[in-house]
Amino acid sequence: MAPSTSSSVTLNINGEKHTLSVDHRTTLLDALRERLDLTGTKKGCDQGQCGACTVLVDGRRTVSCLQLAVASDDREITTVEGVAEGDRLHPVQQAFLDLDGFQCGYCTPGQICSAIGVIEEHAAGWPSAVTEDVRPEAGPPPLTPEEIKERMSGNLCRCGAYVQIAEAVARAAAETRTETEEAAA
């Protein structure tokens, strides 16, 4: 008897469970786009180099073209369709709109998901390749333009909206910090 080449998986996407039978070779990206009609996540290079397909898996940035759907079973997946809270845009989405952080828009969903991950990683004190003081007691480094550029470097924009993207990430990070501080007070 030949081994099965497909499995049943449950994908928890944007707070909703979807059970699918998928070929073991099916990527998360293809499951999202082709099987669940969640086309906000874009297919760019299909090799993990451009970031257009970035989603959040258990809160961590993931290029969905390299993640197998079977490896995403029972994990929390957030796509660009799930980052807003009802009619209220996520602070990153709002900053991208306000600061024109997109041109053609193709890379924007991946940029937005990546920026959300960047802000959370920074707030947690994770260093980047340009962080000067990586000691845990140093806390989060200042979120300088250099930090933002390094942290967002896995997402390419063929239109060249990098300056506006970095400004949008900085604004959203500041707004997120303010909201967190107000909630703690």
Characterise the protein shown here:
- Strands 2-1-5-3-4 form a five-stranded mixed sheet, with helices on both faces.
- It contains five helices and five strands, in the order E-E-H-E-E-E-H-H-H-H.
- The chain is globular and about 60 Å long.
- The protein has helices at residues 28-35, 91-98, 108-123, 145-151, 162-184; strands at 6-13, 16-23, 54-57, 60-63, 76-78.
- The chain starts with 5 loop residues before the first strand and ends with a helix.
- It is 34% helix and 15% strand.
Gyration radius (Cα, Å) is: 17 Å
Please work out how many helical segments DSSP would assign: 5
Structural class: alpha+beta
Oligomer: single chain
Poorly predicted tracts of residues: none
**Could you give a short account of the major beta sheet?**
5 strands, mixed
What is the succession of H and E elements?
A: EEHEEEHHHH
Strand order of the largest sheet: 2-1-5-3-4
Helix content: 25-40%
Q: Which band does the percent of strand residues land in?
A: 5-15%
Overall shape: it is globular
Number of DSSP-assigned strands: 5
How far apart lie the N and C ends?
63 Å
Whole-number mean pLDDT: 94
Protein name: 2Fe-2S iron-sulfur cluster-binding protein
Domain 2Fe-2S ferredoxin-type: 7-83
Keywords: Iron, Metal-binding, Oxidoreductase
Organism: Streptomyces griseoloalbus
Describe how the helices and strands are arranged.
Layout: E1 6-13, E2 16-23, H1 28-35, E3 54-57, E4 60-63, E5 76-78, H2 91-98, H3 108-123, H4 145-151, H5 162-184
Helix pairs in contact: 2-5, 3-5
